[in-house]
Amino acid sequence: MPSTTTRSIAMSSPTHNILWATHHKGEKREAYLRAASEHGWGQTGGPRCGGMSLLREQDGQIMVLPALCGCWRCALCGPRRAAWLTAQIARLVDAQELERFWTLTLIRAVDEPTPADVAKANTYLTKSFHNFVRAARRVYPAFQYVWTREHTVKLWPHLHLVTNLPLSRSALSALWFKASHGSFIVDAKPREIIRSGSYLAKYVCDEAVSEVRPKYARAFSKSRSVRMEPFRPKSQHPQSWRMAHRAYWATVQLRIVMGDTVARQKTQGTPWCVLTLAHDDTVARRDSIAASMALDPKSELYRHPDIPHWSQ
Length: 312
Prior knowledge:
Order of helices and strands: HHHEEHEHEEHEHEEHEEHE
Mean pLDDT: 76
Number of domains: 2
Radius of gyration: 24 Å
Low-confidence stretches: 1-21, 298-312
Shape: elongated
Oligomer: single chain
Largest sheet: 6 strands, antiparallel
Helix content: 25-40%
Strand order of the largest sheet: 9-10-2-1-8-11
Protein backbone atom coordinates (compact mmCIF):
# COMPACT_ATOMS: atom_id res chain seq x y z
CA MET A 1 0.00 0.00 0.00
CA PRO A 2 1.36 3.47 -0.83
CA SER A 3 2.58 5.50 2.11
CA THR A 4 0.83 8.60 0.78
CA THR A 5 -2.62 9.04 -0.64
CA THR A 6 -4.18 10.96 -3.48
CA ARG A 7 -7.05 13.40 -3.37
CA SER A 8 -10.50 11.97 -2.82
CA ILE A 9 -12.23 10.77 -5.96
CA ALA A 10 -15.27 12.81 -4.97
CA MET A 11 -13.28 16.02 -4.62
CA SER A 12 -11.65 15.65 -8.02
CA SER A 13 -14.63 14.64 -10.12
CA PRO A 14 -15.98 17.21 -12.60
CA THR A 15 -19.55 16.61 -11.44
CA HIS A 16 -18.63 17.38 -7.86
CA ASN A 17 -17.19 20.73 -8.86
CA ILE A 18 -20.27 21.54 -10.91
CA LEU A 19 -22.55 20.70 -8.00
CA TRP A 20 -20.48 22.87 -5.68
CA ALA A 21 -20.67 25.81 -8.10
CA THR A 22 -24.46 25.64 -8.20
CA HIS A 23 -24.76 26.14 -4.44
CA HIS A 24 -25.00 29.61 -2.96
CA LYS A 25 -25.64 31.16 0.42
CA GLY A 26 -29.29 31.28 1.36
CA GLU A 27 -30.41 28.79 -1.30
CA LYS A 28 -32.17 26.52 1.19
CA ARG A 29 -34.18 29.40 2.63
CA GLU A 30 -35.08 30.54 -0.88
CA ALA A 31 -36.29 27.04 -1.76
CA TYR A 32 -38.28 26.84 1.47
CA LEU A 33 -40.02 30.20 0.97
CA ARG A 34 -40.73 29.35 -2.66
CA ALA A 35 -42.30 26.02 -1.71
CA ALA A 36 -44.28 27.64 1.10
CA SER A 37 -45.76 30.23 -1.26
CA GLU A 38 -46.49 27.83 -4.12
CA HIS A 39 -49.41 25.66 -3.03
CA GLY A 40 -47.88 24.82 0.33
CA TRP A 41 -49.37 23.77 3.67
CA GLY A 42 -52.17 21.58 2.42
CA GLN A 43 -53.20 23.56 -0.63
CA THR A 44 -54.11 21.74 -3.83
CA GLY A 45 -51.11 20.51 -5.79
CA GLY A 46 -48.66 21.10 -2.94
CA PRO A 47 -46.61 18.70 -0.79
CA ARG A 48 -48.26 16.60 1.88
CA CYS A 49 -47.03 18.90 4.65
CA GLY A 50 -50.02 20.70 6.12
CA GLY A 51 -52.40 18.06 4.77
CA MET A 52 -53.51 17.64 8.41
CA SER A 53 -53.68 20.13 11.26
CA LEU A 54 -52.84 20.32 14.96
CA LEU A 55 -55.18 22.15 17.33
CA ARG A 56 -55.03 23.20 20.97
CA GLU A 57 -57.69 25.05 22.95
CA GLN A 58 -56.88 27.28 25.92
CA ASP A 59 -58.50 30.27 27.62
CA GLY A 60 -61.22 30.74 25.04
CA GLN A 61 -58.85 30.53 22.08
CA ILE A 62 -57.74 27.78 19.73
CA MET A 63 -54.37 27.54 18.00
CA VAL A 64 -54.07 25.84 14.60
CA LEU A 65 -50.75 24.57 13.20
CA PRO A 66 -49.92 22.59 10.06
CA ALA A 67 -48.79 19.02 10.76
CA LEU A 68 -45.31 18.54 9.24
CA CYS A 69 -43.85 15.33 7.83
CA GLY A 70 -40.22 16.09 8.74
CA CYS A 71 -38.84 14.30 5.64
CA TRP A 72 -35.61 15.35 3.94
CA ARG A 73 -37.20 14.96 0.51
CA CYS A 74 -40.08 17.31 1.37
CA ALA A 75 -39.87 20.73 -0.29
CA LEU A 76 -40.98 22.34 2.98
CA CYS A 77 -39.30 20.20 5.65
CA GLY A 78 -36.08 19.46 3.73
CA PRO A 79 -34.71 23.04 3.85
CA ARG A 80 -35.72 23.29 7.50
CA ARG A 81 -33.83 20.12 8.35
CA ALA A 82 -30.85 21.43 6.38
CA ALA A 83 -30.82 24.64 8.42
CA TRP A 84 -31.11 22.60 11.63
CA LEU A 85 -28.21 20.30 10.71
CA THR A 86 -26.04 23.23 9.60
CA ALA A 87 -26.56 24.95 12.94
CA GLN A 88 -25.84 21.76 14.91
CA ILE A 89 -22.59 20.99 13.06
CA ALA A 90 -21.45 24.62 13.31
CA ARG A 91 -22.04 24.49 17.06
CA LEU A 92 -20.01 21.29 17.42
CA VAL A 93 -17.16 22.70 15.34
CA ASP A 94 -17.11 26.02 17.23
CA ALA A 95 -17.04 24.11 20.52
CA GLN A 96 -13.97 22.24 19.18
CA GLU A 97 -15.71 18.90 19.65
CA LEU A 98 -15.25 17.99 15.96
CA GLU A 99 -12.11 19.39 14.32
CA ARG A 100 -11.28 17.14 11.38
CA PHE A 101 -12.95 16.63 7.99
CA TRP A 102 -12.39 13.27 6.28
CA THR A 103 -13.44 11.55 3.08
CA LEU A 104 -13.37 7.74 2.93
CA THR A 105 -13.73 6.10 -0.49
CA LEU A 106 -13.99 2.61 -1.95
CA ILE A 107 -12.07 1.35 -4.96
CA ARG A 108 -14.53 1.09 -7.84
CA ALA A 109 -14.73 -2.55 -8.87
CA VAL A 110 -16.41 -1.90 -12.26
CA ASP A 111 -16.15 0.94 -14.78
CA GLU A 112 -19.90 1.21 -15.42
CA PRO A 113 -21.68 0.11 -12.23
CA THR A 114 -25.26 -1.11 -12.43
CA PRO A 115 -27.88 -0.31 -9.76
CA ALA A 116 -27.13 -3.72 -8.26
CA ASP A 117 -23.42 -2.84 -8.09
CA VAL A 118 -24.24 0.49 -6.41
CA ALA A 119 -26.47 -1.23 -3.85
CA LYS A 120 -23.76 -3.79 -3.11
CA ALA A 121 -21.15 -1.02 -2.77
CA ASN A 122 -23.34 0.90 -0.31
CA THR A 123 -23.75 -2.21 1.83
CA TYR A 124 -20.03 -2.86 1.75
CA LEU A 125 -19.24 0.78 2.54
CA THR A 126 -21.43 0.66 5.64
CA LYS A 127 -19.84 -2.60 6.76
CA SER A 128 -16.33 -1.20 6.19
CA PHE A 129 -17.14 1.92 8.19
CA HIS A 130 -18.37 -0.17 11.12
CA ASN A 131 -15.07 -2.07 11.00
CA PHE A 132 -13.24 1.25 10.93
CA VAL A 133 -15.13 2.58 13.96
CA ARG A 134 -14.37 -0.53 16.01
CA ALA A 135 -10.68 -0.37 15.11
CA ALA A 136 -10.44 3.36 15.78
CA ARG A 137 -12.06 3.07 19.20
CA ARG A 138 -9.58 0.47 20.29
CA VAL A 139 -6.91 3.16 19.85
CA TYR A 140 -9.01 6.22 20.63
CA PRO A 141 -12.05 5.34 22.81
CA ALA A 142 -13.42 8.91 22.69
CA PHE A 143 -13.89 8.75 18.89
CA GLN A 144 -16.83 10.96 17.81
CA TYR A 145 -18.15 11.65 14.32
CA VAL A 146 -20.95 12.86 12.07
CA TRP A 147 -20.95 11.35 8.58
CA THR A 148 -22.84 11.76 5.33
CA ARG A 149 -22.95 9.59 2.24
CA GLU A 150 -22.33 10.86 -1.30
CA HIS A 151 -22.15 9.29 -4.77
CA THR A 152 -19.64 10.24 -7.47
CA VAL A 153 -20.34 10.88 -11.16
CA LYS A 154 -20.02 7.11 -11.65
CA LEU A 155 -22.57 6.59 -8.84
CA TRP A 156 -19.93 5.07 -6.57
CA PRO A 157 -20.53 5.80 -2.85
CA HIS A 158 -18.14 7.33 -0.33
CA LEU A 159 -18.38 8.97 3.10
CA HIS A 160 -17.63 12.48 4.39
CA LEU A 161 -17.05 12.88 8.13
CA VAL A 162 -16.43 15.54 10.69
CA THR A 163 -14.64 13.98 13.63
CA ASN A 164 -12.45 14.55 16.67
CA LEU A 165 -9.95 11.78 15.87
CA PRO A 166 -6.42 13.26 15.54
CA LEU A 167 -5.05 10.98 12.81
CA SER A 168 -2.58 11.90 10.11
CA ARG A 169 -3.51 11.16 6.52
CA SER A 170 -1.12 8.22 6.31
CA ALA A 171 -2.46 6.72 9.56
CA LEU A 172 -6.02 7.25 8.39
CA SER A 173 -5.25 5.58 5.08
CA ALA A 174 -3.69 2.57 6.80
CA LEU A 175 -6.66 2.18 9.15
CA TRP A 176 -9.18 2.46 6.31
CA PHE A 177 -7.15 0.00 4.20
CA LYS A 178 -7.57 -2.68 6.86
CA ALA A 179 -11.23 -1.87 7.55
CA SER A 180 -12.24 -1.92 3.85
CA HIS A 181 -9.87 -4.73 2.85
CA GLY A 182 -8.05 -2.85 0.13
CA SER A 183 -9.30 0.71 -0.25
CA PHE A 184 -6.77 3.31 0.79
CA ILE A 185 -7.77 6.59 -0.90
CA VAL A 186 -8.73 9.08 1.79
CA ASP A 187 -8.80 12.83 2.16
CA ALA A 188 -8.16 14.69 5.41
CA LYS A 189 -8.76 18.41 5.80
CA PRO A 190 -8.05 20.79 8.70
CA ARG A 191 -10.66 22.44 10.87
CA GLU A 192 -10.70 25.66 8.83
CA ILE A 193 -12.54 23.99 5.95
CA ILE A 194 -15.44 22.98 8.22
CA ARG A 195 -15.74 26.15 10.29
CA SER A 196 -19.20 26.52 8.78
CA GLY A 197 -21.58 23.62 9.29
CA SER A 198 -23.00 24.20 5.81
CA TYR A 199 -19.99 22.41 4.29
CA LEU A 200 -21.15 19.01 5.51
CA ALA A 201 -24.86 19.85 5.50
CA LYS A 202 -24.58 20.50 1.74
CA TYR A 203 -23.64 16.89 1.16
CA VAL A 204 -26.45 15.67 3.39
CA CYS A 205 -29.09 17.74 1.57
CA ASP A 206 -27.92 16.68 -1.89
CA GLU A 207 -27.82 13.03 -0.89
CA ALA A 208 -31.14 13.10 0.95
CA VAL A 209 -33.02 14.03 -2.22
CA SER A 210 -30.86 11.95 -4.56
CA GLU A 211 -32.53 9.19 -6.55
CA VAL A 212 -29.21 7.32 -6.66
CA ARG A 213 -29.06 6.58 -2.94
CA PRO A 214 -30.87 3.34 -2.07
CA LYS A 215 -33.84 3.87 0.22
CA TYR A 216 -32.27 1.73 2.95
CA ALA A 217 -28.99 3.70 2.95
CA ARG A 218 -28.99 6.60 5.40
CA ALA A 219 -28.08 10.05 4.15
CA PHE A 220 -26.23 10.84 7.40
CA SER A 221 -25.66 9.56 10.92
CA LYS A 222 -23.55 10.24 14.01
CA SER A 223 -22.00 8.58 17.01
CA ARG A 224 -24.13 8.31 20.14
CA SER A 225 -21.81 10.57 22.10
CA VAL A 226 -22.47 13.50 19.73
CA ARG A 227 -25.33 15.50 21.20
CA MET A 228 -27.62 17.48 18.93
CA GLU A 229 -30.65 19.50 19.83
CA PRO A 230 -33.85 17.82 18.57
CA PHE A 231 -35.23 18.95 15.23
CA ARG A 232 -38.68 19.00 16.79
CA PRO A 233 -38.69 20.47 20.31
CA LYS A 234 -40.91 18.86 22.90
CA SER A 235 -44.22 20.44 23.77
CA GLN A 236 -44.87 21.10 27.46
CA HIS A 237 -48.50 20.03 26.98
CA PRO A 238 -48.45 16.94 24.73
CA GLN A 239 -51.87 15.72 25.87
CA SER A 240 -53.64 18.95 24.94
CA TRP A 241 -52.93 18.79 21.19
CA ARG A 242 -55.34 17.12 18.81
CA MET A 243 -55.06 16.27 15.13
CA ALA A 244 -57.62 17.19 12.48
CA HIS A 245 -57.69 15.15 9.27
CA ARG A 246 -58.12 18.30 7.25
CA ALA A 247 -55.57 20.58 5.56
CA TYR A 248 -54.26 23.55 7.54
CA TRP A 249 -55.83 26.31 5.44
CA ALA A 250 -59.12 24.41 5.16
CA THR A 251 -59.17 24.02 8.95
CA VAL A 252 -58.63 27.75 9.52
CA GLN A 253 -61.31 28.63 6.98
CA LEU A 254 -63.77 26.19 8.53
CA ARG A 255 -63.23 27.68 11.99
CA ILE A 256 -63.88 31.17 10.62
CA VAL A 257 -67.05 30.01 8.86
CA MET A 258 -68.22 28.45 12.12
CA GLY A 259 -67.94 31.86 13.82
CA ASP A 260 -64.40 31.98 15.30
CA THR A 261 -62.38 35.16 14.76
CA VAL A 262 -58.67 35.48 14.04
CA ALA A 263 -56.79 36.91 17.03
CA ARG A 264 -53.26 36.71 15.56
CA GLN A 265 -51.54 34.70 12.89
CA LYS A 266 -48.34 34.15 10.92
CA THR A 267 -48.57 33.71 7.16
CA GLN A 268 -44.92 33.84 6.00
CA GLY A 269 -42.83 30.68 6.18
CA THR A 270 -44.43 28.11 8.46
CA PRO A 271 -47.86 29.54 9.30
CA TRP A 272 -49.92 29.33 12.47
CA CYS A 273 -53.18 30.90 13.51
CA VAL A 274 -54.80 31.69 16.88
CA LEU A 275 -58.58 32.14 16.78
CA THR A 276 -60.94 33.38 19.46
CA LEU A 277 -63.79 30.94 19.97
CA ALA A 278 -67.28 32.19 19.10
CA HIS A 279 -69.50 33.40 21.97
CA ASP A 280 -72.07 30.73 21.19
CA ASP A 281 -69.51 28.04 21.94
CA THR A 282 -71.60 25.11 23.14
CA VAL A 283 -71.07 21.38 23.46
CA ALA A 284 -73.30 20.80 20.44
CA ARG A 285 -71.29 23.29 18.39
CA ARG A 286 -68.01 21.66 19.37
CA ASP A 287 -69.37 18.22 18.48
CA SER A 288 -70.44 19.58 15.10
CA ILE A 289 -66.98 21.02 14.42
CA ALA A 290 -65.28 17.84 15.62
CA ALA A 291 -67.42 15.75 13.28
CA SER A 292 -66.70 18.06 10.36
CA MET A 293 -62.94 18.09 11.03
CA ALA A 294 -62.58 14.43 12.07
CA LEU A 295 -60.63 15.25 15.21
CA ASP A 296 -58.52 12.48 16.67
CA PRO A 297 -56.71 12.50 20.03
CA LYS A 298 -52.98 12.31 19.39
CA SER A 299 -51.42 11.64 22.78
CA GLU A 300 -48.19 10.39 21.23
CA LEU A 301 -47.78 13.63 19.24
CA TYR A 302 -45.30 15.33 21.57
CA ARG A 303 -42.95 17.02 19.10
CA HIS A 304 -43.56 19.81 16.65
CA PRO A 305 -41.01 22.23 15.14
CA ASP A 306 -43.21 25.32 14.99
CA ILE A 307 -45.00 25.59 18.32
CA PRO A 308 -44.35 29.13 19.58
CA HIS A 309 -42.99 29.19 23.13
CA TRP A 310 -45.87 31.28 24.42
CA SER A 311 -48.37 28.60 23.34
CA GLN A 312 -46.71 25.74 25.18
